User: What shape does this take?
Amino acid sequence: ETFLSPEYCRAALAHRYGLYPFIDPFVDFASWCGKRVLEVGCGQGADLSQFALAGAETFGVDMTPKHCEISKQFVATMGSRASVSRAVATELPFPNASFDLVYSFGVLLLVADLDKAVAEIHRVLKPGGTVIAMFYNRESLHCYVKTLHYYGTVCDLERILGPRRLVDWFTDRKS
Assistant: This one.
């Protein structure tokens, strides 16, 4: 499978929602049709693509140019579109009260100034809007098993990337 081909993207979605089967029932992508949605830390673009395919007016931000480009391509490959821009959670490039939903999955725990990020999310959220944020402990068994064992050993990315870059790659740190 070529990176970001339709086959790759479908496999990535199947893997993601197999690993995290609670995402769709909890987030209910279809319920955001016609709403303005911002994903903070859109990464590969898997969830962003599902909001876009469900008919949301979709925006994503990520701190790395690499992930911004990958997200745009992932969403396009899946047959939709999203506006994706480079930004950090503490300085969102949107006007006040812009979004019905601000969504972030496993990213905000990496922000050094979480209080400032939460204030920014609140600023861009419409009155009565919704925030859906998932946090995991970077020292958790899940993180070690997923990152170090599955991606590092099973997928052999530790050999390709090296151990430090492997951790950086999957925790959105700059490498």
About this structure: The chain has a mean pLDDT of 87.
